[in-house]
Design a protein that fits this description.
10 helices, UDP-galactose 4-epimerase, domain 1, 4-stranded mixed β-sheet, binds nicotinamide-adenine-dinucleotide, alpha/beta, 7-stranded parallel β-sheet, about 325 residues
Length: about 325
Amino acid sequence: MKILVTGGAGYIGSHVLRALTRAGFDPVALDDMSFGVSKRLGDTPLVQMDLASAGAKNELVRIFKDQEITGVIHLAARKSVAESVAQPEYYYQQNVGAMLNLLAAMQEAGVMNLVFSSSAATYGAPAEAKVSEDYVCQPINPYGETKLIGEWMVANAVKAWGLNGVCLRYFNVAGAGYDDLGDTSVANLIPIAIHAYKNKTPVQVFGTDWPTPDGSCVRDYIHVADLAEAHISALNYLKEKNREELVFNVGTGKGSSVLEVLAALSQVVGEEVQVNHANRRPGDPAALSADVAKIASVLGWQAKHNLLEIVESAYRASLN
Ligand SMILES: NC(=O)c1ccc[n+]([C@@H]2O[C@H](COP(=O)([O-])OP(=O)(O)OC[C@H]3O[C@@H](n4cnc5c(N)ncnc54)[C@H](O)[C@@H]3O)[C@@H](O)[C@H]2O)c1
């Protein structure tokens, strides 16, 4: 199967490319290279284009036909929550606009298989510490809204023209499956902590009085290599007849606190990482982790790596 991976030169996309190749698929990457890194692609061919641009739909139809693409893994998106709050129109134009072009092109070209990168940001700030897929989605920023709208668009295409679609709601993705594929953006806790440690500055811990065992926020950290494998399970699921499920959480099911993450980093680097206790940030839920019962039972997938392996691999890749 020839699979187009949008956002293929990104952090997660490049892991997906390698997982696809290992599993015997034939991947092609598509990326506008705004955040992509060409070194990550290896031998995988790249189509460079902005999926949200005016001519993207027709260009995609041509690519689908010329390259005989049979499925798409759609990871390309803008992903900064803060930027989405400051520039909501841009986020709708990019993330929703790209999805619109993609689905219209898939329908026209008869490409019937799609795995969509969604996010735990669709849940917003739930009252429950562990959420299953049927928990009500109330995103609290435009980024999360664009992901939820993307899920609705997939669901409607499934109903209207028989698309085989699956949405994967990623929790907190971290680590590196290969030393050359680390997360180069300094936007999530683990890269931020590594960056601060290397610069000999303290890591900010936002709130140590949350109703959690050690008072810091709890999240579900999923190793990017495990996440990449979930895409292979999802593609295989799309081949099954009588599918009923559209949305899957992808996490470990186990929450780790900010202080536990920093303790793991201290263990990896062999010295105490400096910490600065700061105030809570508005909008942060105290604890959020994935109920992973559905992905385990329906896709037969479960995470293999633990927190220490995630932090250790992220640190090693940061030295690359
Ligand atoms: N990293 C996480 O923790 C996390 C969590 C939940 C969901 N996600 C989702 O996973 C996906 C991949 O995230 P990532 O962490 O690898 O980010 P990333 O920025 O490394 O990768 C995204 C890639 O998409 C490309 N891109 C963005 N907009 C594009 C467009 N309009 N046309 C073509 N290419 C475009 C970028 O150049 C980049 O290479 C995103 O959809 C993101 O929302 C990530």
